[in-house]
Each structure stands twice: as C-alpha cells, then as structure tokens.
Amino acid sequence: MTEDKSREDTMEDTNSSTVFNHDSEGPKNDANLDNFYEMHLTDTRDTLDKRNSRLLDESGSVVAPAATSGDLEKIETQMSSATFKEGGYGWLVCFSAFLCNMVSFGVGVMQNYYLTTVMKDTATQVQLTFVGTIAFIFINGMGPPMQILKSILGARVLIGLGCLLMCLGLILAGFSTQVWHLYLTQGVMFGLGGSAMYITMMGIVPQWFDKRRGLALGLSASGSGIGGLIMPFIMNALLLKYGAPWTYRIIGFICLALGGFATVLVKEKFPEKTGRKKITDIVQWNVLADNNLKLWCAAATITLFGYLIPFFFLPSKFCEAMSAPTYAAANGLTTSQGSSLVSIISGLNFVGRITTGYIGDHIGRLNMLIIAMFISACCNYLIWPLNHTLGGLIAFSSIYGFFCGTYFTMMAAITAFIVKMDKFPSAFSVFLMFNIASSFGPPIASAIQSGTNPNSFISVQMFAGSCYLLGTILMFVLKVKMSKSVFSKI
C-alpha cells in the first residue's frame, strides 16, 4: 500500500490524463534522481502499452487512467531538463566555435590590389567578386558531405583538417596570377576548409546547452561579426607593408593558429562511434518529410535574400562592379564614409547576436527571431529610404546591424527544436544549404534596380524589406502551427 500511496501522490486523475508532478515528494539527493524519474517513466510506458486499460493496485482499485502519448512526451522533456548538465566545458567549446566563425567568414578578397596590379588586364571586378561567393557557397553548401566525413573521422580530426586546408588555400592564393587561381585557392580550398570547421562546430555547440542554447549560439555566431570587422583592417595594413603574397601567408598562419587552438578545445558531449557506415545511416534524408522543417527552410531562404543587400549597396564595391551608383556616393558621402557604415553594421551585428541570443532564451528563440526580422523589414522599408545624410544612415546601420544577424544566432536552436536532437545533425547539414540564398540577393536586387530606375535605390530597399517581411510571416505561421498559440514561448 506504500507503493500505491506514492503513485497517488505523483499521478493526478484530472481530465482523464496522467500528469507528472514536479512538486510531489521525491528523492532529496542526486544519487536516486535517475531511479525516481525512471520509475515514473516506466509506469507511464506500461500504460501506453495498455491504452484501453487502467493501472490497478493489488486490490483491483483504479489508481490512474492510462497515459497518452502527449503525456509521455511531456514527462520525457521534463526528465531531460531535470538531468541535463548545462554549460560547463561547453563554454570552451563555444569559444572554439567563435574562433572558427571568425576565420571562416572574416577573410576577404583584395580586389582593388588585383585590379590595379597583377590582374589589371585579365580580370574584372565582377569576376573577382565571385571569389568570395564561391567560398561562401562551399562553406554553407557542403553540409551532408561534411556530416559523412565527421562520422568517419570524428569531429576533432575533421576540424583540424579543415583548418589546414584553409591555411593552405590562403598561402597558395598569394601565388595567384589569374582569377581562376583565386577561384581554386581562396574559393574552393578555403571554402572546403571553412565548411569542415563551421558546419562541424555549429553542430557540436547545441549538445552542451539547453536553457542557455540561444546565448551560447549567439556567442559562437558573433565570431563572424568580429572577423568581418577587424580582418579587413589587418589585411589592408599588411598589404601596404608587405604586399599581397605575404599578406595571404600571414593571414593563413593566423587562421592556422586560431583554428588549431579551436581544434584542441573542441569536444563532443555525445560523441558518436567513428568508422565506415551506410550513407543512409549517417544522413537521414527523411527529415525533409517534416512539414515544419520545410516551412522553416522556406522562411529562411526568403529572409536571406535581403540580408546582404545593405552590406553591398551602401558603400559599395558591388555597385561599382555592376556599373551602378553607390547609395553613399549618390547622397554625397565619401568612399570611406560608405565603408564606415558597413563597419557599423558588422560591429552591431556582433553585439546583436549575443544580446538577441540571451533574450531568446527567456522569451522564446523563434519569438525573438520573428521580432528581429520584422524590425529588419521596417529598417529597409522606412529608415533606409528616408535617410540621406551620414547621421541618418548611421542610425539605420546601427539598428539594422543589431537585429539582422539574429537569424544566424537562432538557426541551429530552432532547427533542433523542430526535429529534436536525434535528427539535428542531418537536418542542420541540409538546412545550411539554404544559407546560400543570401549570396543571390544582391544580384537580384541589382537586376531589379536596372530594370526599373538605375539611379534610384527605392526598388532595392523595397525588395530587401519585402524579403524580410515575407520571411517573418512564414516564421509566424510556423510558430502558430507548432504551438497552436500566438503568445506561447517557442
């Protein structure tokens, strides 16, 4: 009868469902905590096997009605939260991810140097622009192959090999005399190395965090903001003093040092056994059957079309390459003032990713992303078009820069929430391929501008705002579809 009494204390016969009561009497020490949870989970599984029966005590009296599958999922979630050890060594893993993001996305192409010296008669600015595009496509588009290599080699080995490949690509780029040399070195080789580091690392960080996952991923993702902010200044200083070949070599060794340190620090919380496996056992393509994941991918793709447009059209070398006016020049600003606006966006991007990650842990990560993307839409719809002075554009760059990077903070956490951690590696490696969409946004915006009014930026601004707004709407639909409530924390 003592056991029956214990069950009555922890299971309430309310609305014909079994409810796990965290406030009920349980073990007071950690040694018995797992046994305590296991007892209740086992009881609930037994009732699921006998869906139409009831739990009976020895005298035949009804103790509680059978549990539903929803109850079991709730109990498993509560058990996971209660036994999960947050952070710890994970903060060092988070720092290693920060370093990987910094070197993967911080290194730029020295276009002006090549246009005026080595390649002045053999390459155009458009052709040189594609060097960075190729690297970006490889970094984000090699998810499934990198997941396969990780399963065979292990995370640390793959990240180390990626670091070496990045360094080698940059060193060889210093010997380039033709644009296709840069395509192969700083494009393909650097991109493959960056992919091995970035994709692998961003799949490890969520393993170490639950309640603070948004903050951890924000800190990790902020590395790209810092890299984009300081790396160009370092490269310009080195270029003026040592020339392009030695600049690439020095930057290559800097990436090797930072990436090597990250490789030493990285550690999986739940390491998988390495070795040869069936590809279908490594990459679970059936994750694409999840309608919520499809909706999330669609929302991300549309949103990303607008992400890079202010980066490219404010200063902008892209506009010069496409023989289009820059927004800064069209409003009487100097080239350095236009470049400073992009630096402001990058700097606030760093701060914003961390801050929105922290807030997202408290109000819901998808909720935070919806708010941030809506504000980004308003920036492109209202603030950018109505400001033509340096002060006004600084305000736009500050607000937009703070919120636009929230997507990169939340993408891993939201993907994990949609498919759960057991399918997260496959889902995330596939999902990252949709990040490539951001590289096509500026060319599409430029084509729209050329087809309407080449001397006006309103079409560019409306296109960027519309991408953010439509993406926000799809994210809101995803939220309601998953939670059935507008005000839920998700």
UniProtKB/TrEMBL annotation:
- Subcellular location as annotated: Membrane
Q: Which GO terms describe its cellular component?
A: membrane
| InterPro entries given in the database record | MFS, MFS_dom, MFS_trans_sf, Proton-linked_MCT
Q: Does the keyword Transmembrane apply?
A: yes
- Map out region (Disordered) in residue numbers: 1-31
Q: What is its membrane topology?
A: Multi-pass membrane protein
Record's protein name: Major facilitator superfamily (MFS) profile domain-containing protein
